Amino acid sequence: MSTAFTDTYIRNLKAAGRYTDAATLGLNIQVKPGGGKYWTFRYLYQGKRHDLSIGTYPAISLKEARARATNARYELNQGQLPSAAWKPESVLTKHADVDRPTFSEFAKSCIDNKKAEWRSEKHGAQWYATIKQYADPVIGDKRLDEIDTDDILRILSPIWYSKTVTASRLRGRIEWVLASATTRKLRSGLCPSSNGLRQMG
Description:
Elements: E1 2-3, H1 7-11, E2 17-21, E3 27-31, E4 37-45, E5 48-57, H2 62-77, H3 89-95, H4 103-114, H5 121-139, H6 149-156, H7 164-183, H8 192-200
Parallel strand pairs: 1-2
Antiparallel strand pairs: 2-3, 3-4, 4-5
C-alpha cells in the first residue's frame, strides 16, 4: 500500500508487509513477521526491478531514509547504479579523514546493515561466526585495499577439503564483503576470493 509516511505512521506499523512512501519515489519500509522494520529503495535498472537496502528502523529515521532514497535516485538519474544510500556510515565516517576501515570493522558493519532482511537471526549469527573464526585471524586487521589472493588462500586452503561446505559459504561471504567495499570505493580490482578459488581448483 502507498501513503505519505509520517513518524507516527511508521512507528505504529504492525502488520507484516511492504509499505510504500507516496512522498518519496522508490522508498519502502518492510515490516517483518517478528516486528522488525527495514528500509529499501525500489528501482528499475535496465528493465529489471531491484531493491536496495538503506538501513533498519528506528536506527535510520524517516528523514534519513528519505535523504538516502533521494540520493540513490540522483545516482540512478546520473546513469549509475545506486549504492551510497546504504553504506555503513558509522565506519566510513569514523575513518574518513584518518584511515580506511579494516576488514573486520567493515564486515561487521555490512552484516549489521543486512541482517534485518534475513528471516532467521541464526543466519546472521552464522555469518559473524564463520568470518570471526576463519577470516579475522588472517585479514581482520588488514585494510580492505590490502587484501589479496594470497590472503584468501591462507583462509580457505586449510578447510577447503575437510570442511568444503563451510569453506564455500565463507568464500561467498568474504566475496560479498569485498564487493561491497569495491562499490564503496574502499578497494579496487577483481575480488581476490574468486582468484583464490580458481587456484585451489
